[in-house]
Design a protein that fits this description.
The complex is a heterodimer of chains A (94) and B (371). With 94 residues, chain A is α+β, with helices and mostly antiparallel strands. Chain A is built from two helices and five strands, in the order ββααβββ. Chain B has a single domain, classed as 7 Propeller (Methylamine Dehydrogenase, Chain H). The chains are: A alpha+beta (94), B mainly beta (371).
Chain lengths: 94, 371
Amino acid sequence: MAPTVTLVLPQILADVAGGRTEHSLAGVDSVRAALDSLAGPYPILARRIRDETGRLRRYVNVYVDGEDVRRRDGLETPVADGQEILVIQSVAGG
Amino acid sequence: MDTPAYLLAIGTKKGLWLAISHDRRTWELSEPHFLMQEIPAIGIDTRGGRNRLLVGVRSEHFGPTVMHSDDLGATWVEPDQAAIAFAEGDGAAVERIWQILPDVEGRPGVVWAGVQPISVWRSTDGGETFTLNRALWEHPDKDDWGAGFGGAAAHSIVPDPRDEQLVHVAMSTGGVYRTRDGGESWQRSSKGISAYFLPDPEPEVGQCVHKIAADSEGRLYAQNHRGVFRSDDQGERWVSISEGLPADFGFVMLTHPRRSGTAWVVPLVSDYERIAPQGHLAVHRTDDAGDTWHRFDDGLPARDYNVVLRDAACVDVGDPAGVYFGTRGGSVYASADEGESFVEVASRLPDVLCVRAAVLDGRAPEETAGS
């Protein structure tokens, strides 16, 4: 059975994600697949998180169960049933 | 007949403000739009009986986008499909929108955008979708273009009002390029513009042109990293018009909407001293295409150590023309008399990155001051 994961967004992105910060995603097995599954219904959200080359934006961090995916396999980081993907903006700006 | 309203849109490091006036002396300032997001580009499209505001918005975290409003900021629209985005195979991502320019009245729907990384885009649907100009994007000089301190961008786009095939663009660093075939090909057009920071002080490519503008007869003016220049032959050759100015460094280059030969600059001491001479802000105007310059500071502070960035200055199409500029210290000034005297529109805003002004015929400020 395909895993179901929860993707959690910062409140500031809720407006471009149907007004919600939590999205339950079925049938995804990687961070990339999770983000791709939201790109169809929420195209503006998709480009807030990744640029048009597909890279994560520099000051957007993604964690799987608390671990920064940049320290693992990036967007290919696998996700398992019940895990949480947390999208959060890093410290930047002045 | 209703009194015209003047709209001044102020893009800053941390948001957009809109100011409305009936006389260009007393201004009503809105609350901020897009608070905490950078607004490096604004276009006000008053063609076809519509007042469309287009803004380049950039979040430090979530990247750049283009939004528009047809109700003067009461509501904003961001298309599902990004208005400006590279294709998958281009291997590039938009970093910042530097310029949004509605074309002339006779080209309805045409809007230009200048972008970082260095690229020029054109819309035919009023700025909702743009197409990359591939000839410039794939130009053989591309490897010789670089980034100034602010980033590598096409920051000036000057479509000729009479000849739709003729367009000049300027980039930092790279210089001026010209197309005479509607963007199918682009030629270097920087001869005569100096680049003291390169081994060849007068190269064909690599200049750090800060801003270009054209007057009503098509003469071109350039504020360079060092030097103010004019071209009478569509960029074939540039000549210095710096004599008579207190300094030849600066970012601003404005031209009069109707009167040929009239242009404005805001000189800064030098690249090593980026403040107005003696820290006293002043606007300099020529009425003879740069042969002579006149200094104006009425209404401007005697001490201000903040620079005016390249797009933080503009003119309106009023008669007499209005002149506007903002500083990195967050002060914004307006002139109703072609730059001879100024009033303060706003102070202590975040760094002003761009200002654009428009005359909204017959609209009352109550109808327009959305926030």
